[in-house]
Every structure is written in C-alpha cells, then in structure tokens.
Amino acid sequence: MQPLPKASSREADSPSGSGDVRADFTVDQNWERYSDEDHAIWRELFDRQAALLPGRVVPEFLQGLDFLSVAAEGIPDFARLNQLLGKATGWQIVAVPGLVPDEVFFDHLANRRFPATHWIRNRAQLDYLEEPDLFHDVFGHVPLLANPVFADYMQAYGKGGLRACGKGALQYLARLYWYSVEFGLIQTPEGLRIYGAGIVSSKSESIFALESPSPNRVGFDLERVMSTLYRIDDFQETYFVIESFQSLFDVTAQDFAPIYERMNQRPDYDPGVILETDSLLSRGNGSYHR
What is the pLDDT of residue 168? Predict the structure, then answer.
C-alpha cells in the first residue's frame, strides 16, 4: 500500500511470469493462468469485505462495487472490467507486476489508466501483506473509479504528480495520496464513512478506523495533510476526513507550486500529533499505539 510506488522486481507466483514487462511497466494479466486457489482466495476476501462494509463505507463505493458485479465471481478479467469502467468514466485498468516508478505511476493516472498488481496474496497473507496485491488494487481502488468526481480527482492527482517530478515535492504528494486515496474518511449525512482503499480492503482496519477510540479523526486540510508523516506498518494514528469528493477535487485542483514552497518552510508532524489549528472531529486516546 505504498502511496507512490517504486520499482519492484516481484514476479513470483504471478500468472504472467517474467520477461514480459513493457516499457510502461505493464504486463498481460493472463487471467486464464490463475489457479482455483487464487480464485478461492479472491472470493473469500471479496465476500468478507462485501458483508462488512455496508454501513461503514461511503455509498458511492458500494454503487461502484455493484456496477462492477463481475468481480464477485472470482478474480476479475481486467478486459471485462474495462468494458464497464470505460463506459462509465473512461478509465482502464492495466496490469503491472508490482510497484512501479513514480513517473510511470503518475503518467498512467494522468491518462486515466489505473496500474493494478496482477498477483494475489496467498492464504497465509489474508489479513496482512507488505506490498499491494490484486485484491487491494482492484477491490480497494476500482469501485470508486466508476464515480465521475473521484475519477476526475485521480486523474488530476496524476497530472499534478507529473508536474511535481524533479521539484523535490514527491513526499508531499505521497502524504496526500496516503491520507486520501488510501486511508481517507468522509463525513456523510449518515455519519463517518470509509473511502480509502487501504481501509476498505482490510477487515481489521475497516473496523479500527471507525470504531476504535485510539486514532484521531481530523478535518481535511491540504497543507496539514501534506506536512503529516504516516505509518506504513500498522493502523493509522490519525485519519483525515473530507466533506465530499467534490470538496477533495476542488481543494486539490490548484497550482501546488506555492504550496510546495510553504511546505519547505514548515516542520513535518508526527502521525499522532494534534495541532491547535486542527478541526478536530474526535481526539484519540492513543491506546492502541501505546
């Protein structure tokens, strides 16, 4: 679940094997090479999250999941998903062997292509793995790509990333991606809901993010998010809460150059810190991380 993927050579247990990575780091999915066990693991993870998420996840995610209903049958064929997704928002899924370089990642997003890992975890990794796999990438990310506003946000993020390359600002974009696309919460009329892919694809964090008294839940502020460090090895200490996908798109649809200049002048904040200027929805007691 790295926010800005780096190059990875992982090819073990992948249906494509090695030696077929293109210049843009895409590969053939080779759907027919998935084993019965691969499909069984996908269905187990899918059924578990599909049962857990209603009442916890933003309605747009469930709408996207229903729209991409072929995903319930087993590991989805990207070609079939792309027919549906392309008609909805013009996005396509491209298979990659693992994490890809920053500029490649940004270029795919800027051109409405989502790079999805084509290998799936084994049974011993059902609840945790260090690198994003196919279930995280497809179940976690793809349903919201069927939502026009969120789909536009993802493309704008990719374009912003291309502009940021070479400016020493990638860490700020990494934090934005982490606290929105991967681990974002949203305030709805029905209450706080999940939308980040790192949460919706995880049984334990789907519960922790909303129900645990431990983490802070803070109103989203772009520069506050960009200056906040994050945890890649455990549950988050702070979750940032947006008001709507449109508000997320609006606040990030600007020239980040002056923001980067300000970021270079301000300190980084630890993941669990609360600032006097925060719009605090709930102050965590920190019990989990202690």
Answer: 87
Asked if residue 8 has pLDDT above 60, the reply is no
Task: Give 240-269 pLDDT, tens digit per residue.
Answer: 999 999 999 999 888 899 999 999 999 999
- Per-residue tokens: 141: 């990310």
Q: Is the dihedral of CA 61, 62, 63, 69 positive or negative?
A: positive
CA distance 185 to 209: 8
Strand duo 216-219 + 238-242: pairing: parallel
Stretch 170-191: mean pLDDT: 97
Residues 33-36: contacts with CB within 8 Å, 24+ apart? Answer: 34/74, 34/75, 34/120
Q: Are 157 and 177 in contact (CB under 8 A)?
A: yes
Strand partners, 94: 115
Closest CA relative to residue 203, chosen from 128, 265, 278, 110? 128
Strand 113-117 and strand 185-188: the pairing is unpaired
Contact 3, 177 (CB under 8 A): yes
Instruction: Classify the C-alpha dihedral 175-180-182-186 as positive or negative.
Output: positive
